[in-house]
Amino acid sequence: MNAVHASARDLELYVIGALDPASAARVEAHVCDCEACAASLAGEARLEMAFEQIAIGLDPDRSQVRRAVAKRDAASRAVVTHRRTVTIACALGGALSIAAAWFLWVTPAPQDARALGAPTVDVNADAETTTASLDAMKTAGLDGG
Question: Is the pTM of this model over 0.85?
Answer without folding.
Answer: no
